[in-house]
Amino acid sequence: MTAPPRLEIRRTSHKGRGVFTLDPIVKNQLVLPMRGEILRGDQLTDDMLAMQIGPDLWLCSDGNRLDDCANHSCNPNTGFLTGKPELFALRNIDAGEEIVWDYSTSLSEPGWTLDCACGEANCRKVVRSWGELEPLHRERLRNWTLEYIRHL
């Protein structure tokens, strides 16, 4: 079993904070488990940092954990390969690279959007809920989603 990579939070030039690896990471290696308190949607408040993990389930945190600082990218280097809230390397990742994932692979809230700041050549400009992605993007991302998204 491969040792987990050493990760750290750093400031980024245009996205606030981000998570960066200090070690090389090999494809399919576990990079970052998502942790926090699981709440229903009706228990959420506006000041909570939450990631959707089910149709009405959210993983909530205080905003200071490594997984809270992992940024979105339209060209992610990690994804939910097992369907659980754990990010795995989608390719080999060099030491010093930012750990990024596609936020659309966990979210099914209709109408949710976020202006994208990833800067990738394939940037969609707006991050959307899973059901509002173009079919081409859903097909490309389907194997990197949380389990509940795979059945939508």
UniProtKB/TrEMBL annotation:
SMART domains: SET (SM00317). SUPFAM superfamilies: SET domain. The keyword S-adenosyl-L-methionine applies. Residues 5-104 form the SET domain. It is found in: Chromosome. PANTHER family: SET DOMAIN PROTEINS (PTHR22884). This is SET domain-containing protein. It comes from Telmatocola sphagniphila. The lineage of its organism: Bacteria, Pseudomonadati, Planctomycetota, Planctomycetia, Gemmatales.
